[in-house]
Specification:
Two copies of one chain form a homodimer. Chain A is an alpha/beta fold and 336 residues long. In chain A, 44% of the residues lie in helices and 18% in strands. Chain A is built from 15 helices and twelve strands.
Chain lengths: 336, 336
């Protein structure tokens, strides 16, 4: 058990000064306060405030993702997490994050300062400041769709992209498609890399030729589709597998503008199964991620990390939802 | 909701006959009884006995693995599972399995007949009869160290072999070893395949040459080591990474017989951290699988599957336990 004295000895200052730093007193410098807090965290000291805290507190940090309305990808993830956590009497705070805010306080200090026992990070990019710090964090932390190696305090939760992409390619090959393009999202995310690897794997296991001209990387937004669609079509794609539903919606809208008939002339598959997938015309065939379950499972992983069970990754099964945007390959394409 | 009448209509027999089949009556033939039960399972009928059952029942099936005494690999896994399950008021049965017993009853029928709500399968081989049936099972089932694709009723639980092997190779390369051999276990298990892939991956990421003469497959028993050790040494190995602790113990004993000094002349690393790893001389450096946590985590995954959350895989972090069987590469080997 680390005491205030231990921290004082380590820093070569008086225990009373350490105590001031831990209790946010005004008569020591902000720099020294930070040093005391950082050293306390590093040595595993539990502050009195953390011990006294009657409410157990968790924080969900969201970045690069909409979550305010039920149509948004993040909404149900946060809802599922909260539902499960509140049942166990946790108080859950949701905070919007940005790279700039991450520069203000290192992750561990932010968590201790605010008496959070664990964090759930959603939508972070690989290059985010906090992502580098997580390598050594001592705070139980669950990452949605991100993975950190060799730290027993961190778990990765998500949907199995490999199985999702494989289900989609099963479906498309059963319809006769062989020239299946991948229109993927931003390259600076782990999910994008996973879905690309999954595409390569699944194409190979279906004995299909991999054509680099049928792979494009845009961004996970509707507007990104139009820049890539013409080239993919030119290169012979009869089906396009999209990195998420927003990209797929972009493809459907652009096809309407270009007078390309879906699914007669081109099959389109999304990923996520957002509400819009069922509403758009033609309704989108897509890979479902159950976001309420993802939220519940993320809380479960965090619960285990806090109990010192070193969960490394916990993934959910995707399901393929077949709607109207996929069909038998056009016979014209067959004769190519 | 499926009724007895629905089953009767489907089979073209009287409802009273269906009822006899479901209630294990003596005046219908065993063949018809099986047909009734299988049809009921397929149609999702819940028997009265299952509804009445006041105790909720789970079954752990163990094959190819010792679990009776605390030294055995399976002991703590079962203990951890039971501890977690009993807290939720489940009754847990442990059953030894064999391929022959699996031929007597298909998995789903066995589970329904015995009113089990979920199963936890430990130590099964890829070629086991039940493994093929699990592809389509409707019974919530957790597999230790085995993976079935595309069935939302099945989860895979284990320790991350990739990270484990990578930790061991980090350690050995830091000690100067480059000729690191892999003495792996039986090729008909998923874990063996994973550890082989992990070895190849990690050797590559450490910029080490992969030499097929430094890879051998034996069985996960002590006695297997002696058949492979001489060849690995002849081929220049200065360190041997073993598929489990029993193989590593076999290597240590055989080295004693051959008068090869560990760790001065050869470094040895195990996998599992069984009690014997700390007791043998020299004490074995090994990759720890926390088996109590594996048991708890397996129960947690089964709990979620029963609640219809389609967990696909849930892995734990390994830890490297450095003891006395690894050391700096001998200077003689360096000059090779």
């Amino acid at each position: 058990m680390v005491t205030i004295k231990d921290i004082a000895n380590r820093l070569g200052i008086a225990p009373s000064t350490v105590s001031k730093g831990l209790n946010d007193a005004n008569d020591i410098s902000p720099e020294l306060k930070k040093l005391v807090l950082d050293t306390a965290i590093e040595m595993g000291y539990v502050t009195k405030r953390m011990k006294k805290e009657t409410r157990k507190r968790l924080c969900i940090f969201v970045e690069n993702m909409q979550y305010e309305s039920p149509e948004d990808f993040g909404f149900d993830i946060i809802l599922g997490f909260k539902q499960a956590a509140l049942r166990d009497n946790w108080e859950v705070t949701v905070t919007s994050m940005s790279p700039l805010l991450q520069l203000r306080d290192p992750y561990d200090r932010y968590m201790v300062k605010n008496s959070f026992h664990g964090g759930f990070l959603v939508g972070f990019a690989l290059k985010d400041p906090w992502m580098a710090q997580l390598k050594n964090t001592t705070i139980p932390t669950v990452l949605f769709d991100n993975y950190i190696t060799k730290n027993p305090n961190i778990a990765y939760v998500g949907t199995d992209s490999f199985e999702g992409i494989d289900l989609a390619i099963d479906h498309l090959t059963a319809l006769g498609h062989t020239k299946i393009a991948l229109l993927n999202g931003s390259p600076d995310s782990m999910v994008t890399i996973n879905r690309y690897d999954a595409y390569i794997n699944s194409m190979q296991s279906h004995d299909l030729k991999i054509d680099k001209n049928l792979v494009a990387h845009g961004y996970y937004v509707e507007d990104s589709a139009k820049y890539h669609l013409p080239t993919l079509i030119e290169n012979g794609a009869t089906a396009i597998l999209c990195g998420n539903d927003l990209l797929a919606v972009g493809v459907i809208k652009e096809c309407e503008r270009l007078n390309i008939k879906i699914p007669q002339e081109l099959s389109v598959v999304g990923f996520d199964n957002l509400p819009i997938a069922a509403e758009i015309s033609p309704a989108l065939t897509t890979i479902n991620q159950d976001r309420i379950d993802l939220g519940r499972n993320s809380y479960a992983a965090l619960y285990w990390l806090i109990a010192k069970v070193p969960i490394s990754r916990s993934l959910l099964r995707p399901r393929l939802i077949v709607r109207d945007s996929t069909a038998q390959i056009p016979s014209a394409a067959l004769s190519d």
